[in-house]
Amino acid sequence: MRILGIDPGSRVTGYGVIDSDGRSSRHVASGCIRLGAGELPPRLGRIFTEVGDLVAEYAPQALAVEKVFMAKNAASALVLGHARGAAMTACVQAGLEVFEYAPRAVKLAVVGSGAADKAQVQHMMRMLLGLTRAPAADAADALAVALCHAHTHSTRSAVSRVAR
């Protein structure tokens, strides 16, 4: 299965594409859509367009994206929700199934601790995917959510087969 992972952000949106059979995964591509400052609507338009371009180029079967979490600033969470919506809409329009994961669940799945920091996630993406260097923080987070989905989907499929 080819999975597109997205770490949404209104200034930097990370992406990661992996191929996975649930047991082993291979890095296909990763990077960041750097949006910078400026008015929000044009940045959301770029997220929509560039995520759509990624879907067209890499032809994933699923989108895995981090859920919005409420930290201290409600306005920031709202803007993050807009960025997620732009990315998700591009994928849904292309016919992808969308799967959402809490940030703590992603970190727990790939690092073993829901409180892992960005450097730990970067290190684990390098190790788990056999990369020559650690990806940028936002790209690593996107790869991590894609890997979380690969593992979760594999486990759910196995449980479903046993339950029959």
Description:
With 164 residues, the chain is of the alpha/beta class. It has a single domain (2-163), classed as Ribonuclease H-like superfamily/Ribonuclease H (Nucleotidyltransferase, domain 5, 2-Layer Sandwich). The chain has helices at residues 40-58, 74-93, 103-110, 118-129, 137-163, and strands spanning 2-7, 12-20, 25-34, 62-66, 97-101. Strands 3-2-1-4-5 form a five-stranded mixed β-sheet. It starts with a strand and ends with a helix. The model has no long low-confidence stretch (mean pLDDT 90). It is an enzyme of class 3 (hydrolase).
CATH topology: Nucleotidyltransferase, domain 5
Instruction: Give the tally of β-strands.
Output: 5
User: How does the major sheet shape up?
Assistant: 5 strands, mixed
Mean of residue pLDDT? Answer: 90
Radius of gyration: 15 Å
Which keywords apply here?
5 helices; alpha/beta; cytoplasm; 21% strand; RNaseH_sf; magnesium; Crossover junction endodeoxyribonuclease RuvC; five-stranded mixed β-sheet; 164 residues; X-over_junc_endoDNase_RuvC; Nucleotidyltransferase, domain 5
Quick structural overview:
By secondary structure, the chain is of the alpha/beta class.
Describe the SSE topology.
Blueprint (H helix, E strand, L loop, with lengths): L1 E6 L4 E9 L4 E10 L5 H19 L3 E5 L7 H20 L3 E5 L1 H8 L7 H12 L7 H27 L1
Parallel strand pairs: 1-4, 4-5
Antiparallel strand pairs: 1-2, 2-3
Subcellular location: Cytoplasm
GO molecular function, one term: crossover junction DNA endonuclease activity
Enzyme class: hydrolase
